[in-house]
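Exercise 4. Each item below gives a protein and its sequence. For each, produce the structure-token representation.

Item: ATP-dependent protease (Rhodophyticola porphyridii).
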Amino acid sequence: MMSPADLPQTIPLFPLPGALLLPRSRLPLHIFEPRYLAMLDDALKTSHRLIGMVQPREVPGKSDKRLHAIGCAGRVTQFSETEDGRYMITLSGISRYRVTREVSGFSPYLKADISWEGFEGDLGGVEKDRSFDRPRFLDLLSRYFEALSLSTDWDSLKDAEDELLINSLSMLCPFEPEEKQALLEAPSLGTRRETLVTLIEFALRGGTTEEILQ
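Answer:
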């Protein structure tokens, strides 16, 4: 567990559409582009070993993409190198952050000054969802998985803690990047669960994500 004093004010950014990292969750990544190999090498030299996951966003009327303001920083907790120089790593989610300024420099990857303010709860203990109706949720999830021909270990889902269950599904379900961003920005576990339910119900009705997020 990291404390606020351990958190740096500038971190490297890894923009990756659809890749969602949440506090106290784990995200496996395959690193092979030269700029991100350099980013990983530099991150491993620091005491915090943090990398900021962030999603690109499209700007209406423009061909280039910008970054969402809110991302989640993860600490490199596992890594292995392949014979051809690629890395398989695991990021353990530490805290969400807000980008305040992108930092220009000589590095081949993005860096940003960030603020941790407003996300102090991410550094705390496991969050509970007091209003969670697990049987009803699992019934909805079963219909969703059946519709998408997905499989899972239902016994593990029934026994999983609220946070582990909700966050794992938020990260693993095949939602669109903007939907993933909505799950990331949810202010509480209960709100994230409500957003997750909305996305699943809408998918079962064959709706579009634009109607959800407006």
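Check: The domain at 4-123 is CATH 2.30.130.40 (Archaeosine Trna-guanine Transglycosylase; Chain: A, domain 4).
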